[in-house]
């Protein structure tokens, strides 16, 4: 089943490992590092291997296998200054940031990087990060209402003068930002991403964001979300793009890839995974319709803490390329990839998987032209 709009070429992003512990909560070897020198080299490798975006994740204190963390906005700027083409997305939490302050930082980062800075608005799943800092912990839908206001304030400050905003969470009075980001008709102000799976997240994505990030999903799960998301966008007379999380295990044979997945799960850090599960599953279960992130995740799903295994980008380059193109047919605009050994696996992906994706896309494009679609 396809949705109403199919992108010409799917884009690729990778999770920045700026948090210790890698992208799986497992005692398996992960040849990766959260330090800056490793990540600087990785960012350059990624942009040379067809990746257009990188997402700097954020945790503010130790939790569930992530003992150390670099802050996302400063780390993103450092990566932007070390690269030439890569767009870096910084994850931020409303409630811990004042949107006008972030707008000022974002405009500066936009100028310093020649327009490559972006923001992912994360409404928050980790209660302790708020309560330990003395900030109120809101109920699920209230957190997303606050994020909706946060997205609106950022957009207005980046595009308008003398901004007034009177919301339930943020009040802005006659505020003008100068300099503004490097806006142009071809490249609007810093791209805004909204993360989530819930109904409230989809409303925000459709009404206010440029991109919507989903946890890992199978084909049916992706189609259901995209149709709902684009309904909200149409109602607001907008268009929004869709990004899908997936943990990528590309190997020369399917057996090698499946054996790697089995080893990751067999060596899972069970106390850390169970602790994470108890912290996050309230996020989905606290929504009225039980559609939130992690609401139906199994133990195995949560070993990759954004359900990346569920996207099933696991196998040979040919198998993974075909699956990515199937997601593209359903309306996925971007794949956000996690890897076990980032440096060498991003190189392998760029050499062996991405060219196959482009070949399949080109063949489909030619077929559509022949039938006049």
TrEMBL record:
Domain of life: Bacteria
Record keyword Phosphoprotein present: no
Residue ranges constituting the Luciferase-like domain according to the UniProt record: 12-333
Alphabetical keyword list: Flavoprotein, FMN, Monooxygenase, Oxidoreductase
Oxidoreductase listed as a keyword: yes
UniProt GO molecular function: alkanesulfonate monooxygenase activity
InterPro entries named among the record's database cross-references: DMSO2_SphG, Luciferase-like_dom, Luciferase-like_sf, SsuD_RutA_monooxygenase
Gene Ontology process terms (BP): alkanesulfonate catabolic process
Gene3D superfamilies xref list: Luciferase-like domain
PANTHER family: ALKANESULFONATE MONOOXYGENASE (PTHR42847), ALKANESULFONATE MONOOXYGENASE-RELATED (PTHR42847:SF4)
Name this protein carries in UniProt: FMNH2-dependent dimethyl sulfone monooxygenase
Organism, scientific name: Rhodococcus triatomae
